[in-house]
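Journal club side-thread
Mid-discussion, someone asked how the predicted structure for our own chain would compare to the paper's figures. Pasting it here so we can look after the session.
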Amino acid sequence: QVQVVESGGGLVQSGGSLRLSCAASGSIFSLNAMGWYRQAPGKQRELVALLGSSGSTIYGNSVKGRFTISRDGAKDTVYLQMNNLRPEDTATYYCNVVVVVVSGRSGDYWGQGTQVTVAS
């Protein structure tokens, strides 16, 4: 019903930048929130950044001041600009969207993940 596709991961040197994209499509009536989470091997999935429909944002403590979440509302796409990357940012990054579908039901959907590797 709802598809979530991430892109933009890759290998970057410490101090470098990457921009992740996440596009949501399908039977979406409204997008209530879009966010990025990450999971490193052996660790729990953690919040990176969250963007509400009102434009409010929440960032994980470890990325504040370095990462920026933004959205292209016309395309139902959310971006994560990651600057000054560190080796500890290495993880699989997942996009999550909270939507109301055209049937009226609400739910959240995950993308397949995109790998970010930061070399020291």
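Post-session note: The chain has a mean pLDDT of 95.
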